[in-house]
Amino acid sequence: MHPEVIRVTQSIAERSLATREDYLRDIEQMVRQPVNRSQLSCGNLAHGVAACGGEEKTVLKLMDSANVGIVTAYNDMLSAHAPYADYPQKIKGHLKTLGCTAQVAGGVPAMCDGVTQGQPGMELSLFSRDVIAQATAVSLSHQMFDAVLMLGICDKIVPGLVMGALQFGHLPTLFVPAGPMTTGLSNKEKVRVRQLYAEGKVDRAALLEAEMASYHGQGTCTFYGTANSNQMVLEAMGLQLPGSAFVNPDTPLREALTRAAAEHVAKIARTSRQSLPLAHVIDEKSFVNGIVALLASGGSTNLCIHLVAMARAAGLIINWSDFDRLSKVTPLLAHIYPNGSADINHFQAAGGTGFLFQALIKAGLMHPDARVCFGGQLGDACIEPHLDGESLQWRKAPDTSLDSNVIRSADAAFSQEGGIKLLQGNLGRSLIKSSAVAEAHRSISAPAVVISHQDELRQLFEQGALDRDCVIVARFQGPRANGMPELHKLMPILGVLQDRGFAVALVTDGRLSGASGKVPAAIHVTPEAANGGTIGLVQDGDLISLDVAAGSLSLHVDQDALAARTPSDLPPCDNTIGRGLFLSSRAGVTDAESGASTLFLALPPEHSPASQISPDPVESIRQEQVTHGV
Q1: Between 20 and 30 A from 410 (CA), which of 247, 350, 357, 489?
Q2: pLDDT tens digits for 111-127?
Q3: What is the rounded distance in angstroms from the CA atom of residue 254 to the CA atom of residue 348?
């Protein structure tokens, strides 16, 4: 194992001693209890089986075979979740052949950031993760189940399901993916048309045609955004069958994998002699493996928020310094859009997760002895599924890349560092998805252009006020201000400015996710403007420097002058489109580095680097190095 990976893993374990002990104590209390439904009164159980057929009722009364709870994020509006429509019935049929049963325990909301992008609904997006976690807990609270199958795939849905499932860590749990849509219009061509539209060179009809040719069928979007990053992380953490993430919907192999997931969860259910509770699988090694896989593949920055919240649900404390330390030793092994031209189907064909994990384990960057929910250890799971006739079989993942333009081994990496980097200085702490940014654009010093709403940028662009080097500062976009929406509405305009030869960058306390593109963007700035962050004091014309190599983000304003400034007022947050129901969420949410969660208390000061920001960026970096013994 690489010594820095070991050190980060140990650091997480040490800082989490008290919270992890509390979590495991709660889980062990539930593990020691009898099979859940045997604890129910006759009236309780009668209610729980009333809707079942006679045969199912008989099986459930016997208490000796698994009853699997299905938590589903199905809806037929979203391409990624529409395939789940008939999964429950198929799963019930598969389990019936084993003498087991299944019930849909509940449904969770699944909203799409693609639909709400740039719209008011995006202000509910991040908070929906915690709602999903709570809905999962409500679904499983009936104590009718011996194991759980999770049907969810996209942005906030998977993290929310994981957070909820971890509160029932005594139950064996497996995620069942539905796969990506087949390849449509290339992502590069889609972005080209978006930029032409931003310049007024093509009309809305041409833009709509390009978008619909890209997003054209059932399955996840094919670019490497948050949805597909979720799937990468789930496999790295051992929460779904190996090689199952990126198999297209409605194919024989996809059907076989769903059957295998149902059969396997029955084998590890609480009623089995091989019971494997979720909490006995997920630990600090699991999370380090998930982070390393994310970094090596150039995945979504959203996971830097979600993994923190997921870890807290398991009693573990991780922060952005952990991501940064791992990124410095993790090579970038995949080029998937927006880090390259390939989509997720190309990645799967070139070797997929099996090849990637095998390469990372060989380089000492993933824990091969981490336990996985499908039995054994991660080192044994560098395999891929295939069909031999109608029979699902497993074979060793390829040792060499089938397309070195898409995926490579560690000794031929695209970059010696991972795809995400921590930036810090007198503006606070932030993240940048450096893997998508060309080397020539990774350092910039330019005057600030301050906006408080995405629509303000288009007005400035159309006025010609942005035809110069500039750093766009989009403030009041953090979780406390307005729910921390993604700000992709800004990117076509900034891409046009960059193509015109101007040095441009974005600095924001909002999000961009896995679709962060070629423009350098310091995102998730913490503390946010609405929480007294320095980003709220920036004025038009202030010089800002962003340097990826140095890991710095600096506002070049004298400290006395800065102290004399009056913070700008928080813009009013409209209560339409459901936003009024989330007033308490905005008031009580933790900062982005603490997971932007409404469910957990803020990190104690000793574990919250964002609360110890030095006004001097050089001193801030030095303190970070001292903290970690560099």
Answers
A1: 247
A2: 988 888 888 899 999 99
A3: 14
User: What's the pLDDT at 339?
Assistant: 84
- Report CA-CA distances (Å) from 1 to 4, 184, 285, 364, 415: 8, 40, 12, 4, 20
483 three-class SS? coil
Whole-angstrom Cα distance, residue 523 to residue 359? 30
Residues 353, 296: Cα–Cα separation, whole Å: 11
Report if residue 519 sits inside a domain. Answer: yes
For residue 221, give the amino acid letter: C
Q: Tokens at residue 107, please?
A: 């449904």
pLDDT of residue 61: 78
- Cα gap 189→304, rounded to integer Å: 28
Q: Is the peptide bond before 527 cis (omega within 30 degrees of 0)?
A: yes
Here the CATH number for the domain that contains residue 156 is 3.40.50.2300
- Separation of CA 29 from chain center: 30
Given a cut of 50, the residues of the chain with pLDDT beneath it are 611-630
Using CA atoms of 71, 77, 83, 87 in order, give the dihedral in degrees to the nearest 10. Answer: 30
Write the DSSP assignment of 518-559 as a string of letters: SS-EEEEEES-GGGT-GGGG--TT-EEEEETTTTEEEE-S-H
Say what the pLDDT of residue 443 is: 96
Backbone angles phi, psi at 219, to 5 degrees: 120, 170
386-425 pLDDT per residue, tens = 999 989 999 999 999 999 999 999 999 999 999 899 999 9
Which residue segment(s) compose the domain that 556 sits in? 421-627
Tokens of 503: 């040095």
Same domain, 76 and 21: yes
Does the predicted model carry a pTM greater than 0.90? yes
Is residue 51 a part of any domain in this protein? no
Query: Rounded to an integer, what distance in angstroms lies between the CA atom of residue 203 and that of residue 226?
Result: 29
Q: Are residues 501 and 610 in the same domain?
A: yes
Per the DSSP assignment, residues forming a β-bridge with 407 are 334
Query: 237 and 126 in one domain?
Result: yes
| C-alpha dihedral (185, 297, 506, 305), degrees to nearest 10 | 110
CB 186 within 8 A of CB 158: no
Give the per-residue pLDDT at 436: 80
Domain match, 425 and 388 both: no
The predicted structure's pLDDT at residue 215: 79
- Same structural domain for residues 620 and 480? yes
Name the packing angle between helices 284-297 and 226-236 (round to 10°).
Answer: 140
| pLDDT recorded at residue 608 | 58
- The CA-atom distances, in angstroms, between 345 and each of 245, 327, 451, 470 are 11, 25, 38, 37
What's the total number of domains in the chain? 2
Final residue belonging to a domain, choices 346, 380, 396? 396
